Amino acid sequence: MQASTAEPLRVERNVSLRAYNTFGLPALARTLVRITGDADVRRLLADPELGRAPKLVLGGGSNLVLTRDVAQVVLKVEVRGLRLVETRDDAWIVEAGGGEGWHDLVAWTLEQGLPGLENLALIPGTVGAAPVQNIGAYGLELAERFESLDAVDLVTGRSVTLDAAACRFGYRDSVFKHTGFGGLAGKSLITRVRLKLPRPWQPVLGYLDLERKRHETGVEAPDARTIFDWVCAIRRAKLPDPATLGNAGSFFKNPVVTAEQCRDIIGRDPHVVHYVLPDGRCKLAAGWLIDACGWKGKSIGRAGVYDKQALVLVNRGGASGAEVVTLARAIQESVYGRFGIRLEPEPVVV
Ligand code: EPU
């Protein structure tokens, strides 16, 4: 019999997830398996004990609220690799392993002289998680730089490649968040993502905070590195660093309402921050709505509302997931009570 050269599966028991979620919430994974490539998933599926067990895919844990120990088998994605795979006339195509840090990828592309992701600097989380919620910031969404991704089916073990259409990207949304017909939530693990960086490079400016930087610095035509530095500075000034204050970024999506609802809300409060979308509907700034209800800086138990940005909930030290959920519900109730709007959370609650 030929000896197998395959590495054994890396299975760990009763692993604390506190360091694996940016909120810093306490929870144990009963079973955690580190996935470094497609073959690990197939080995896991072939395992008589773990193969059929329910599974939870964990990236950087930056969009996660853990309210209890996790009974599912936690698959911690640790697929590595950053490379330029193609240079086309219209774009550079770069590929990154799902386990790479998103910000590390952005910094690496700039070091390689491959601009295009600079507006998405400093977003916490991994490359593999980025398409799940179609990360976006400062006028750019992942979908606008997306080429394709590789994923492994968690039932069959088959590897597939999906293009942008198959990913069904929307605002903080994709096929990977949907459980209904055709949805892929919980059904696949993203191993590699390819990004398309358009040539020639064009800056994405126009977002208010970036325009303010342009005005302050007098730099009319910033290069990609300058935009990267501006985005990092803006984020550091108004978003808490998860390494020092646990959080999951924006806790709620900015709600989209009909033009009629928007007029009604402006009638009640003319200062409401809103953006008119191309289809006539309006996106409201959830942070403004929460702020207007007086939540900024408030706490319930050890979970709080960040004092510089009301859309971000924080762990003031030793919070439980239940406290975060209680705070989130209280905020939803007061925003609904005052504005008639139901805020939808961004993170996944487990
Ligand atoms: N605002 C307030 N009070 C607050 C917070 C915000 O009045 O406490 C007002 C601001 O003054 C501004 C408006 O609300 O006029 C929007 O605020 P900001 O520009 O900070 O953006 P945001 O809507 O709060 C969104 C994304 C962020 C992304 C920024 C920049 C969502 C849910 N959030 O935040 O993404 O970094 O724009 O593009 O779309 C994330 O998703 O985790 C995230 C951080």
Overview of this protein structure:
The chain has 350 residues and is of the alpha+beta class. It folds into 3 domains: 10-77, Uridine Diphospho-n-acetylenolpyruvylglucosamine Reductase, domain 2, CATH 3.30.43.10; 82-198, Uridine Diphospho-n-acetylenolpyruvylglucosamine Reductase, domain 3; 246-349, Uridine Diphospho-n-acetylenolpyruvylglucosamine Reductase, domain 1, CATH 3.90.78. It is built from 8 helices and 20 strands. It has helices at 38-46, 102-111, 164-167, 208-217, 224-238, 259-268, 286-292, 321-339; strands at residues 10-16, 28-35, 55-58, 64-65, 70-77, 82-87, 91-97, 136-137, 140-141, 146-153, 159-163, 188-198, 246-250, 256-257, 274-276, 282-284, 299-300, 303-305, 312-315, 348-349. The strands form 6 sheets. The protein has a 5-stranded antiparallel β-sheet with strand order 6-7-12-10-11. The chain has a 4-stranded mixed β-sheet with strand order 1-2-5-3, with helices on one face. Strand 18 (303-305) and strand 19 form a beta hairpin. The relative contact order is 0.13. The structure holds uridine-diphosphate-2(N-acetylglucosaminyl) butyric acid.
Helix content: 10-25%
What's the average pLDDT?
A: 95
Per CATH, the architecture of the largest domain is 2-Layer Sandwich
Main sheet characteristics: 5 strands, antiparallel
Task: Summarize the model shown.
This protein has helices spanning 38-46, 102-111, 164-167, 208-217, 224-238, 259-268, 286-292, 321-339; strands at 10-16, 28-35, 55-58, 64-65, 70-77, 82-87, 91-97, 136-137, 140-141, 146-153, 159-163, 188-198, 246-250, 256-257, 274-276, 282-284, 299-300, 303-305, 312-315, 348-349. By secondary structure, the protein is an alpha+beta fold.
